[in-house]
Amino acid sequence: MKSLIIATISALIIFSSPSQARDDLVHLNIEQVLTSSKAAGVLNPNIKLYFGEQSYPAPSEHYGEVVTNKKTNAFGKSDEEACSWVFLSAIKALQQRAVREGHNAVVDITSYYKKNEYKSNEEFECGAGTLMAGVALKGKIVSL
């Protein structure tokens, strides 16, 4: 019993030490994730999405800028798997907000991880760690 307690405490010390902490920035392809089998049934096809500096029709109404910050369990998952899942969760939150506010698009979507803006038409940014992965996005809710 005593050796089990010592082993448990040792494991906790080893796995909670700063040398085990990881917060890597990962960049993944937006289109690949949005067209993946995971995206089917998660995203709302009626809410249009425009990333970075992609052009879009002139909005007839503006709601304003919103931010979403999502996290997911990354333990035992590849960075790509965890980041793809949490990106879909963040996009879903933006789409749900657009619906709630009575609009049909989210434009100028940029990554906003740790309040650092990463603007791209093709990629999003994800913070990938040993236990958690996170994606923060900001975008403007509009009606097109």
Report on this model:
- This protein is of the alpha+beta class.
- The chain has a single domain, classed as Translation Initiation Factor IF3 (2-Layer Sandwich).
- It has helices spanning 2-16, 30-34, 79-100, and strands at residues 24-29, 48-51, 61-73, 105-111, 123-128, 132-143.
- Strands 1, 2, 3, 4, 5 and 6 form a 6-stranded mixed sheet that branches.
- A hairpin with a 3-residue loop joins strand 5 (123-128) and strand 6.
- The longest helix has 22 residues, at 79-100.
- The protein is elongated, with a radius of gyration of 18 Å.
- The model has no long low-confidence stretch (mean pLDDT 90).
Write the layout of secondary structure elements.
Blueprint: H1 2-16, E1 24-29, H2 30-34, E2 48-51, E3 61-73, H3 79-100, E4 105-111, E5 123-128, E6 132-143
Parallel strand pairs: 2-4
Antiparallel strand pairs: 1-5, 3-6, 4-6, 5-6
Short description:
The chain has a single domain (21-143), classed as Translation Initiation Factor IF3.
Name some characteristics of this structure.
144 residues; alpha+beta; Translation Initiation Factor IF3; six-stranded mixed sheet; elongated
Give the total of beta strands: 6
In CATH, the topology is named Translation Initiation Factor IF3
Radius of gyration: 18 Å
The CATH class turns out to be Alpha Beta
The rounded distance between the terminal residues' Cα atoms is: 66 Å
Strand content: 25-35%
- Mean pLDDT over all positions: 90
So how many helices?
3
Estimated helix fraction: 25-40%
Shape: elongated
Order of helices and strands: HEHEEHEEE
Biggest beta sheet summary: 6 strands, mixed
| Whole-number count of domains | 1
> What would you say the CATH architecture is?
2-Layer Sandwich
| Parts with pLDDT < 50 across at least 5 consecutive residues | none
Structural class: alpha+beta
Protein name: Excinuclease ABC subunit A
Organism: Corallincola platygyrae
Keywords: Signal
Signal peptide: 1-21
